[in-house]
Design a protein that fits this description.
The protein is built from eleven helices and twelve strands. With about 375 residues, the chain is an alpha+beta fold.
Length: about 375
């Protein structure tokens, strides 16, 4: 079958067919009913379907269901019919294995020798990496702004908070009314909590990559506190079981905090509004620190379990698919460790991290 069977005969030369087949971008031709008539090698690589599997099927198999329902294909057909071409249309498409990829698509009209429309030609480019890099850069800018704000807050609020706390303690000593003293104690505790939040926010947003000796249990406790702040309304019971025998590790404290916090936030998200139980545990086993993060959430489908550490794979509508990929890189490349996952749909998910005390001489960041 010629890869250009939908293109007018004058253009369907062997040379043109070879050029299209070996092009670096996916090139797909459609008839007027959006049935796929040709499929080059780049399309096979991008979507996972061979030409034999996909030619003759509707292009709709590549379009997310909600975009189909919104009339995206009808919109594109209409735009091409009215203007002859649609350039750089950014959207999402679905691969054979169910992954969503961000693409930039250009559609143009195909005509026969008499100028009659016989279909459309689609040139599709994967922009997932480009968008992910932009997302990460934007996230870095937001983190830099948050870091500056946290430092400013700590500076502007630290001294006034200390002064107010001192005045509250003085007032407690000078009152004989039990009800008043109780209220003053409660106010002091709340202000102390505010100061702790500011300090933790400052610690979390300070520059990454500074290596030193890490108290793993202390970082684990801080990550759990931060995750709770972000999900105060969640009906989640938490159990933290830390082994006092856990020995310090050398590395970036903030990188390790990033890993712990991401796993905890994922666990909260997996349990959702229905709540559940979150168990976090650390243990020293010979020359390794072993950690468990276990939730009773919705679990992960078996066919997705082997993909969750792959870049750009995500089960969340608003996810970038880079969180667990970065976590795995930090654990493996900076801490010489290993992270694994076990899950059962409807029962929950357990992540297990092993961090050996011996490290590479040259660390690699995420």
């Amino acid at each position: 079958m010629s890869l250009l069977r939908a293109i007018p005969p004058a253009a369907s030369t062997p040379e043109a067919s070879i050029i299209v087949d070996r092009a670096g971008e996916a090139i797909v031709t459609l008839d007027q009913r959006d049935v796929i008539r040709s499929w080059n090698r780049a399309a096979e690589t991008l979507f996972g379907y061979s030409a034999g599997e996909i030619v003759g099927k509707s292009f709709a198999v590549l379009v997310p269901s909600e975009r189909l329902a919104a009339g995206e294909l009808e919109f594109l057909r209409r735009q091409v019919s009215e203007h002859g071409v649609v350039q750089g249309f950014e959207t999402e498409r679905v691969t054979k294995d169910g992954r969503r990829i961000k693409v930039s698509a250009t559609r143009s009209e195909l005509v026969d020798g008499d100028g009659r429309a016989i279909g459309q030609c689609c040139v599709i480019r994967d922009v997932s990496l480009q968008r992910a890099v932009i997302h990460q850069l934007y996230g870095s800018e937001k983190l830099a702004a948050l870091r500056a704000m946290a430092v400013g807050l700590a500076h502007e609020l630290g001294n006034p908070l200390t002064g107010v706390l001192s005045l509250l303690q003085l007032a407690e000593r000078r009152t004989d009314e039990e009800a008043t003293r109780s209220r003053l104690v409660q106010a002091r505790h709340e202000l102390s909590r505010l100061g702790k939040i500011i300090r933790e926010l400052t610690d979390f947003t300070r520059a990454d990559g500074v290596r030193g000796m890490i108290d793993v249990n202390e970082v684990l406790q801080e990550a759990l506190v931060l995750a709770r702040y972000a999900h105060e309304a969640a009906a989640v019971g938490t159990r933290l079981d830390t082994d006092p025998a856990v020995r310090p590790l050398m590395g970036s404290r903030n990188h390790l905090l990033q890993v712990f916090l991401h796993l905890l936030m994922n666990a909260y998200d997996a349990m959702g509004e229905g709540g559940g139980q979150l168990t976090v545990k650390s243990m020293q086993i010979e020359g390794q620190v072993v950690l468990w993060f276990e939730d009773t959430g919705r679990g992960i489908d078996p066919e997705q379990l082997g993909q969750i550490f792959e870049p750009f794979f995500t089960t969340k509508a608003d996810g970038s698919g880079l969180g667990l990929f970065v976590c795995q890189r930090i654990v493996a490349q900076e801490f010489d460790g290993h992270i694994e996952v076990a899950s059962e749909p409807g029962v929950g998910t357990r992540f297990r991290i092993q961090l050996p005390q011996r490290l590479r001489s040259a660390p690699v960041g995420p």
